[in-house]
Amino acid sequence: MAISILIPTALRQFTDDLSEVNVEAKTVREALDKLTETYVDLQKHLFTDMNALRSFVNIYVGEDDIRQKEGLATTLGDNDTIMLVPSIAGGTTAVVG
Amino acid sequence: MINIKKLHIDDIKRYAETEYPYECCGILLGKVETNKSKTVEQILPISNAQEDKHKHNRFLITPEEMMRAELLARKNKIDVLGFYHSHPEHLAVPSDYDLDHAWPMYSYIIVSVIRGTAENFTSWELQQDRLKFSSESIKEGD
Question: CATH code for B2-141?
Fold first, then answer.
């Protein structure tokens, strides 16, 4: 299956500034493995040492979060789009009042 | 450096005051220039997804909001440049919590809100070694 992987701004420094990478894959895991084989430095930003998806990285196929589907085993159709979406949070440590 | 219109700065400050004493948050969309400076073209106010009891000192943007912002940016041929949030009753400097949750490349705009009034407006970028933020200069345009 021809798959497009959309790369967020924060991770483009690891994909030669590409915002989109095309791979052939049947599952999300296979697509991300091919992505990180080509762009090795991405591996540690997406996966833990145990090769599990990092908790602050979210993966969408189309508009569906893979955690609500079959996770990394989610199957792909031809021309599907995978989007890497970083979790965003912050704040102070101060307490008002 | 980040280029941002006064109109957008005013909108961010107004939103920060409206949400006080809670933290506000939002997404910055625009272009990365060839010299790596950023130009904000659109701001997206986002509802702080933290639980109410934490909203006074924490913000959260849901993955779904981020996904939709990415799609909007691509549709308009621009990028997600970074984020803004407020620090109620606190300086406009990043906290350790901000550092723990930061990503490289993005701009992190912080506005301090003191007794309900937006005051300092700063921008920060995570250093490559992830050890701290660097101050990012702001160029205000019309």
Answer: 3.40.140.10
